[in-house]
Structures are given as C-alpha cells and as structure tokens.
Amino acid sequence: MLRPFTSLLLFFSLLSLSLQASPTKRFPHASSESDFSERANPETLRKYVFDLSAPSMKGRLTGSPLGKAAEEYVKNVMESLNLSVTVQSFSFPLYEVVAPVSLTVKEGVPGSEARSFVYLKDFREVDYTGFGKTSGELVFVGYGMDAPTSSSDLKGKIALLLTGVPQGADAKSGALGLKVHNLALRGASGILVVPTGKLAERIAEGKEEAELRAMDFKSGFLQELYHPKVPVFFIHSHVTEELTGKNPAALAAAPEPKSLNKWISLELHGKMTPQAQAKNILAVLPGTDPLLKDEVIVVGAHYDHLGIGADGEVFPGAADNAAGSAVVMEAARLFASSGIKPKRTVLFALWGAEEQGLYGSTFYVKKSPLFPLERTKMMVQLDYLDGQEGPFLTNVDDNPLVQLFIGDSVKEKRLQILDYKGQCASDDCPFLERKVPAYRFVAFGEHHHRRSDTRENLSLEMLQKTADIVVQGIKAAAY
Question: Is 14 exposed, middle or buried (0-12, 13-18, 19+ CB in 10 A)?
Fold first, then answer.
C-alpha cells in the first residue's frame, strides 16, 4: 500500500464535509477550444467520489431501497449538465442479506461446547439461496450429485458438499444451483459448500471479498431451483479442515458420503426479489462532423456497490466504483460545459446492477442500445480505481480510436497496458461479447469488496491521474 497523503486527505475530507449538503456546483462555460482544460477538476472529482461513498449512501445496492440515493444522485448530476439524458429502467433478480448471520458447530456428544465461526473470515452466504434458522447433524455428501428419492434421506440434516464433479463426469451436471436443488429435495435443511479446484484457489486468493453464486447470471434466476427456506454458506479451507479433518483436496480425493458426528447451526436472513427494478443513466454529447458523427464512443462506469453485509456492516465502495463513476461524471461535466463540439458522438454511461451480474450494461447491449452497436467504435469502462498499482488499460489493440485515446500516456509512463487476452471483468463484457472493441481502466489495491474500501483509503493521486488520462483520451478520440 502506498504511503497515505495525510495532509491532502485531511484537507479534502474537510472540504467534502462542506460540500456534501450543497447541490452539484455549476462551472462556467469555456468560450473556445483554446480555453478548454485537459485536466479534470480536482474539487468536483472529490465531491462526486466522496458523496457516492458516504455512509449515507449505505453501500449503493441497486434495486433495493439502499440504492435509491445513489441512483438519484447520479441522475441529478447528469441532468444538471447540458446533455441529452436517457434513464433506462430494467429488472433483474436481487438477492439481499440482513443481520443476523451465524454458523456454529459442536461435537455430536453430550455436553460439548459450541464453536462460533466469523462471518467473511470463515464463511459467507451463497448468493441466490434461501434464508432461515436451522440446525442438524452434519453429513458429508461428496459432490452432492445423487438424484433425490422419495425417502428424504437428509431430512433435518445439514449437508456438506464439494463443488465441481468427480473426474470423468460431465461438468454441466455439477452446477451448484442444481446440487442445492437436489439436496433440498432430499430433505436437507441447510447446506455448507466446500470450494475445490480452481474455484478453491480463487476463494483463497479473495479471502474476505470472495463471493459464490448458486445460479449463473447468464442463465437468469430459475425459480424452480430456488428453495427459500434452505440457507447455504460456503466455508474457507481452514473451516473445512476443522469440520472434516481434511483439506478440500484430500476430501475430494475420498468423497464417500458419511456422517461427521457434528451438530451444525445456521442462521441467515434476507429476501429474494426476482424482478427488482434498477436504472442506467445515459447522457449523450452528439457529434457534429458530417462524416464522423454517427460513430459512437461509450465511456462508462457502474455506480452500484454491495450495500450492507449480512452482519450489518456497510461496504462503502469508494474505489469500486464511486471513483469510476466520479471520473465519468466529471468528464461529462467538463465536455458539456466546454462550449466545443465533438466530431464523434460520446455516450457517458452510468450502469446499474453491475455487482449483481452486469445487468445494466447487458440490458443496454442486448435489449435497448441508444445507438446501433455496429456504430459503437469504442467502449471504455472505469471500474475499481484503488491506489497501489496502475492505472492499467486492458486489452489494448490496434483499434485506431484506442490508439488516439491513449496517445502518449504510455510513453510518458502515466498509463500501463494490461493484456487480459480478450477476457473481461466488468461492464466491458457485454460489449466484447457483441464484438464491440471494449477496454477497462483498473488500478489494483488491497480494498476490493472489503469494508476498508472507504473514501479515506482512496488514492486521490490515482483518481486524478486516471481522470486526466480519460479527459485527454476523449478529447483526442472524439474531437
């Protein structure tokens, strides 16, 4: 982690407090291109990012009451600019958790003491599974792929299963949602999931930020696989060893079902909303060149985050992605107020429901693009601007527009290129799937999906540096 800029942070923290209660500030219009500043305004940048990551935003969970304040904030900012704004509404399945949450175990012998595990450090809920409070005998069910029978052999028990499939089995048959469904039909009142293979490596690397879903967002929420009264947690490898005496790899090597002679208690509360409502906020700066105005450049960021965890603690999401949203809003403000007109059309996009499964950007690409996708010549996404490494731009190729966009920033060592080999991890994904050239700004750090992703821990230097590159890149590629 970089050494904190203590004095700067103190100054801008005090500045933010004075600005938060005031409406978005207007800035004078530049009268000509020569008056245009190619630097983002640090005051506005900090106001946007500090406001979005404030405690009052309650973690910006799109589609829930917790996300309304952020949704209105970005809408009001964009509508205050001299731009044509479109608000797209879309629906998506929203999974919310609330306190209390608990996982305890005790040996299956009289008088044994209960051992309580720690949320996030030891276990976490599996998204798109059920809620409730239950307890029962812990039974290892291997890969959990046995078809349900009428005997309800797991009735009143807690099932512990491995992810994945045995060697030689069809990988599609190992879908976690299908396994949970079958175990619930067999009578299991709760389920513990042991990640294995590459998933185990990702969970171990992610530690407290790690997440696991029972349903693939690409397939959509499947009501027929959802069991609302069966809570499901995944556990970290050290908990697996404590419960079974083996690490996940050793357990997968001998997956024979058996009782583990332990008594497990689970508690999780929340709700599942199959058709939650959310919004994309889209602002257009139209091109004016007769030959180039139909070419579109999209500059986007998701404004949502994770809301409040099952233990009642807020995820502020300053770097992810109040920072990216602030850059988009500041770029939109700067160009809208500049008085100069672009040759190409620029779409400033603030996406909803990225954290739940890229739902906002997917809706735009698949259902309601403002412009034909074949006219979208470049998409630039900003997502996760932490303070240790970067900024990077992913998947840079020989597209003339992206080459114009980056200009001399790589040569000047202000920007680094990151080869993702065509892969993606944010709202650039739906565009790449439709063969639209898409790139993502990212700056890595230690706060991703953690409670420590606060405005106090945000690198103001990284924020400014990234915003300046984006402003200069838009100017070069669109003007």
Answer: exposed
- In this structure, are residues 123 and 233 in contact, taking their beta carbons and an 8 Å threshold? yes
Matching residue, tokens 């010549």: 377
Residue type at position 235: I
Residue 40 has phi, psi (to 5 degrees) of: -65, 145
Domains of the chain: 6-94+274-478 (3.40.630.10), 95-272 (3.50.30.30)
Quickly count helices (H) and strands (E) in the chain: 12, 14
Structure tokens at 463: 């924020």
| Sole residue written with tokens 């994904």 | 429
Residue showing tokens 């303070």: 387
Alpha helices in 197-264 (DSSP H): 197-206, 237-244, 248-253
Q: How far apart are the first and last CA of the chain?
A: 37
The pTM assigned to this predicted structure is 0.87
* C-beta separation of 454 from 386 below 8 A: no
Which residue in the block uniquely carries the two structure tokens 């040569």?
411
Task: Check if the beta carbon of residue 79 is closer than 8 Å to that of residue 87.
Answer: no
Which residue do the tokens 């970089």 mark? 2
The strand pair at 416-418 and 345-351 is best described as unpaired
pLDDT at 11: 31
| Cβ-Cβ contacts under 8 Å for 431 (sequence gap 6 or more) | 298, 361, 365, 373, 376, 379, 437, 438
- What's the pLDDT band for 2 if we cut at 50, 70, 90? very low
Examine the pLDDT at 36 and tell me if it is beyond 70.
no
Closest residue by Cα to residue 219 from 183, 178, 184: 178
Identify the CA nearest to 59 among candidates 456, 453, 463: 453
| Model pLDDT, residue 21 | 33
Task: Give residue 279's pLDDT.
Answer: 98
Write out the two tokens for 301. Answer: 């960021």
Q: Which has the closest alpha carbon to 349: 306, 304, 381?
A: 381
